[in-house]
Amino acid sequence: MAQQFNPQGMNAQNIKKRYAVLVFIKGSTAPLVLYVQDYQALYQELSERMISPNAVLIKKETEGPLKEVCFVSNQIAALAIQEEQYLN
Predict the structure, then answer these.
(1) The pLDDT of residue 10
(2) Which helix (H) or strand (E) element contains residue 47?
(3) Residue 70: which residues within 8 A CB-CB, separation 6 or more?
(4) Which residues have CB under 8 Å from 10's CB, separation 6+?
(5) Is 70 exceeded by the pLDDT of residue 12?
(6) d(CA 70, CA 59)
(7) What span, in angstroms and rounded, lies between the C-alpha atoms of 61 and 27?
(8) N or C: which end of the chain has fewer CB within 10 A?
């Protein structure tokens, strides 16, 4: 049976989880990765904007490498929620 890699000093207490909303824009090769406090609310908001017939400019402040982002709602091709593990 395979054993998981566990470097010295790394234990379950050091591993944290964070979530990001991935926004796939039409014609773009990479998604926008948005780190926010309430990722489920953002996902819900964006999914509702995707099906709306009216195009609106969406502006968001985020907590990750992207600090501010804006895009037009009718350019969203897909959405996803990503779970990441990281060391604290």
Answers:
(1) 60
(2) helix 39-51
(3) 57, 58, 59, 60
(4) 87
(5) no
(6) 4
(7) 23
(8) N
The average confidence (pLDDT) of the chain is 90
Q: Find residue 84's DSSP bridge partners.
A: 18
Residue with tokens 């964070």: 18
Would the CA dihedral through 59, 17, 28, 47 be positive or negative? negative
User: How many CB atoms sit inside 10 A of residue 37's CB?
Assistant: 9
Report the C-alpha gap between 11 and 60 in whole angstroms. 35
The residue with tokens 């996902």 is: 43
What are phi and psi for residue 44, nearest 5 degrees? -65, -45
What residues contact residue 39 under an 8 Å CB cut-off, 6+ apart? 19, 20, 21, 81
Q: Which amino acid is at 24?
A: F
Residue 51 sits at φ, ψ, to 5 deg, of -90, -5
Show Cβ contacts of residue 27 under 8 Å, excluding neighbours closer than 6 positions: 75
